[in-house]
Write a structure and sequence with these properties.
With 216 residues, the protein is of the alpha/beta class. Helix content is 31%, strand content 35%. The strands form three sheets. Strands 1, 4, 5, 6, 7, 8, 9 and 10 form an eight-stranded mixed beta sheet that branches. Helix 1 packs antiparallel against helix 2 and helix 2 crosses helix 3. The N and C termini lie far apart (37 Å).
């Protein structure tokens, strides 16, 4: 299932506009905060699909019946670009367990690249809801690699993939390679093109560099 949250009119569109704007991007603090705010919106929308149970809570004047989350999700982010989104999700799912994935593009001399997976820190995820955050879904190969590494720690009851900007090619790749009945893609916007180096067009550039500075 694919849900594109930016298709309607909402504040989400304002935040995506600011992420894309090449002059506003110069403010790294604002860029990180916009990633975080968008993830908070994603968290709210994802929360509607989770399982709830009714609990009694005693107020100063009586007892109220309130639906609350039956189980906390596991939030996983792809470093380093995913860290601000991770914090945004954690702001709402504040009791969630956490996982971190280290993966990057390793370029060859001919300009081609492969996804290099280096490290995974993760709790058991069997029977839990898993949320994977990465701001950009370009080719989709790093997301599929991350998912396959994570499910070695158990099979989640459902996986929610949160990406702010995706390419059509990346969406189709994920749909082909992940189980459709067990995964939901939550996207802010879907762009048409990828460059020869697999950057999304119009996209927004390198989210990790814009959030934390250029790398060697």
């Amino acid at each position: 299932m694919v849900r594109i949250l930016g298709e309607g009119n909402s504040l989400l569109s304002q935040y995506i506009y600011e992420l894309r704007d090449k002059s506003i991007q110069l403010d790294r603090l604002r860029f990180r905060r916009n990633l975080e705010r968008i993830a908070e919106i994603f968290a709210y929308e994802i929360s509607k699909d989770l399982l709830y149970e009714v609990k009694s809570v005693e107020t100063p004047l009586g007892v109220a019946e309130v639906p609350v989350l039956a189980n906390q999700p596991v939030i996983a982010s792809v470093m380093r670009a995913g860290l601000p989104m991770h914090q945004g999700l954690l702001n709402y799912f504040d009791k969630a367990e956490n996982a971190f994935i280290s993966a990057y593009r390793k370029y060859g001399k001919d300009g081609t690249f492969k996804i290099q997976f280096e490290h995974l820190s993760c709790p058991a995820i069997g029977g839990k809801n898993l949320i994977i955050a990465d701001p950009m879904l370009a080719t989709g190969s790093s997301m599929v690699l991350a998912y396959r590494a994570l499910i070695e720690r158990g099979i989640p009851v459902h996986t929610h993939i949160a990406s702010i900007i995706a390419s059509k090619e990346g969406v189709e790749f994920v749909k082909r390679n992940l189980p459709s009945n067990a995964c939901t893609l939550w996207l802010g916007a879907v762009d048409d093109e990828l460059t020869m180096k697999s950057y999304i067009v119009p996209g927004l550039g390198d989210a990790g560099d814009l959030a934390y500075g250029s790398k060697m």
